[in-house]
Amino acid sequence: MHTYTIAELSAALAAGEVSSVELTEATLARIERHQPALNAFITVTAEQAMAQARAADARRARGDAGPLTGVPIAHKDIFCTDGVRTSCGSRMLDSFIAPYDAFVVERLREAGAVMVGKTNMDEFAMGSSNETSHYGPVRNPWDEDTVPGGSSGGSAAAVAARLVPGATGTDTGGSIRQPAALCGISGLKPTYGRVSRYGMIAFASSLDQAGPMAASAEDLALMLEAMAGFDPRDSTCVERPVPAYREVLDQPLAGLRVGLPKEYFGEGLEPGVAAAVEAAVAELRGLGAEIREVSLPNSGLAVPVYYVIAPAEASSNLSRYDGVRFGHRCESPRDLEDLYKRSRGEGFGAEVKRRIMVGTYALSAGYYDAYYLKAQQVRRMIRDDFVRALEEVDVLVGPTAPGVAFALGEKSDDPVQMYLQDIYTIAVNLAGLPGVSVPAGFADGRPVGLQLIGNYFDEERLLAVAHRFQQATDWHRQVPEGYA
Ligand SMILES: NC(=O)C[C@H](N)C(=O)O
């Protein structure tokens, strides 16, 4: 049953064709078998998973099971999990056992989902290839010599290899959508404020957002419904009812106005990706959508703006890891300064250090106005571009990433090349809008992602369009060889 979607597993559980205990056992066995090749997990929580599975079966027997009750899932290791190591992919937090559950973890647990483990990720979510993880790189199941994307690469690889039917991720500049694209799965970054950030280790707080990753848009809808909602413990979380996302999936596309941002089809886009995206657009047209060209004139500024704002916020957020209150502590420090220096020097990897330095510089006296303030002003212009475009059309469509999965090591020595992975995703975070990536074919045998961007809190429409596209295509059903 490992190729079943969450919706299909949910139906099988409801029909009594399988128990959660059986499903969870099979899931744990598959993880054990493929972990050496993929390295998608940092921690596997077999014992707790079996206990949760037994509880889920008991709950079903009592007659109060929901659609996720008994379904195995995994959490990105950025979410705090009570009593379970929460490393954020960093040596800094290698021995951190969270004392409470993140909101997202709590909500999925309450829905009855069974947590089988914590997935690998780029250190503190900084990266687009999963190569910055302290626990080693994750491999892409479509070609194990290539990267899965990042930073939610472990979640993406685990779903792509059908080790779990769904997993959580976080997206600060593309970290759900880009790995979803590179691994041939579906991934949704909700509107900023739709999902609580409580218990999610902070990277860049004005951009971070949690979201679901799964094979299909229908599964994303099922997961989002459990994950979304108001939480007073996150002051940026918006109090707004959560729609029954799955109920509103079936909508015809006739008359849907789809905008193609012309800036998303220019220089830097690999021809194979362009061809797959164009074919997907033709498919949407065939389903009744009306396609027009739109412009996001400031989109070329999104990557530079992000690489001022995100490191600035990160430098502040990561200052708490001082070896005293939080994080790795060096052996026998000479004095307090030595303790700080060596603890941080040993605990953080190169990319994290680079960002702390850039961010500290951008915020320092004399440079603040020139960099940070300026970046915030341009951020507003980027947002305004989207607001204008979304007055003309209902959704924007384009590629998720400029290319397909690349070889391990290919871009790790060139931060700018790595940052350019997110040229089509980052602006969406700067604007706070929702975006989804869905599988849309292959180029050179590797998956291509199609990105759909919607208006604020219009996840319903995004999911409905993605679902209709998936009813007409079977890209989301493709499973890499050796994992089918
Ligand atoms: N965290 C993210 O959303 C990924 C982005 N590539 C970054 O390194 O910041």
UniProtKB/TrEMBL annotation:
Identify which residues the record assigns to the active site.
Answer: 76, 151, 175
Amidase domain: which residues?
A: 22-463
Q: Which reaction does it catalyse?
A: L-glutamyl-tRNA(Gln) + L-glutamine + ATP + H2O = L-glutaminyl-tRNA(Gln) + L-glutamate + ADP + phosphate + H(+)
Any one GO cellular component localisation term in the record: glutamyl-tRNA(Gln) amidotransferase complex
Q: Which PANTHER family match?
A: GLUTAMYL-TRNA(GLN) AMIDOTRANSFERASE SUBUNIT A, TRANSAMIDASE
NCBIfam families from the xrefs?
gatA
Q: What is this protein called?
A: Glutamyl-tRNA(Gln) amidotransferase subunit A
